[in-house]
Amino acid sequence: MTTVSLVGAGPGDPELLTVRALKRLRDADVVLTDDLVDARVLALLRSDARVLRVGKRGGCVSTEQRFIHELMIREARSGARVVRLKGGDPFVFGRGGEEVTALREAGIEVEVVSGLTAGIAAPASIGIPVTDRRHAPGVAFVTGHRQDGEDAPDWAALARSGLTLVIYMGLARAEELVASLRAGGMPADMPAAAIAAAHTAQQRQVICTLATLPATLRSEGIASPAILVIGAVVNEAVPWQTLVGETGLLQVAGA
Ligand code: SAH
What is the pTM of this model? Predict the structure, then answer.
């Protein structure tokens, strides 16, 4: 039976790939990749592998998603070893579920190779644990982005939950979501962090408070892709002096 591998590429640095992901990449004939995947990961492919970039910059998202499904199905039926490669983990804000459904409906078997998600790896790169029993009993992974007709997260409930909030795709609406959290009763001085392009050569981060987050993001020029972390766990971030290598660019702003 034909199988497509839905592979998580992790946040950037190829050392964070799983061993299984590396095997699938080396075996792949055809790779359909998202924009977010690091060039160093694509460099691990065989030189004769075909790389199809199916990122969703601009255009009509739903049509494109259907197109991706059709392309995967066509390539798999042709007998090629197909890898569908996604940044981070394929099942965390990656439409992996929809792609699995489409492939199964077409009679194609799918293997999911989990990856290290940015929501865990980005905070960890500066010493922030997403859970820590001294600070938070758990963590909520939420998206700051939604399309028309999709429900927004219940920010007021999240503000009261005591959970660490890890927000993906939150830059564009940072102001709005900070206002919603404050309206829900979260204190203005709740620690907050933003980590951009974690585990890449472009990594940058800031540490501030809930109230100063929108202004800090602007003044420090924090750009997508970035993870926002809100909660007392941010207090565990390591002092910038002790950071080495790719994370040596830590900036503490508005603290
Ligand atoms: N499946 C991915 C998430 C895709 S949604 C995962 O599991 O990581 C895209 C969002 O992920 C971005 O807007 C950003 O919030 C986050 N993201 C992905 N890679 C990142 C990185 N290297 N550093 C910081 N945030 C990242």
Answer: 0.92
Ligand 1 centroid vs 88 CA: distance in angstroms?
Answer: 6
pLDDT in tens, 158-214: 999 999 999 999 999 999 999 999 999 999 999 999 999 999 999 999 999 999 999
The ligand 1 site (C-beta within 6 Å) comprises 11-12, 36, 86-89, 92-94, 117-118, 122, 168-169, 195-200, 224-227
**By residue range, what is the domain housing residue 28?**
3-113
CATH of the domain at 56: 3.40.1010.10
Q: Are residues 86 and 144 in the same domain?
A: no
191 and 131 both lie in a single domain: yes
Ligand 1 centroid, distance to 4 Cα (angstroms): 23
Domain co-membership, 151 together with 94? no
How big is the chain by its Cα radius of gyration, in Å? 19
Which pLDDT does position 182 carry in this prediction?
Answer: 98
The answer on 242 and 122 residing in a single domain is yes
Q: Which of 27, 35, 56, 154 is catalytic?
A: 56
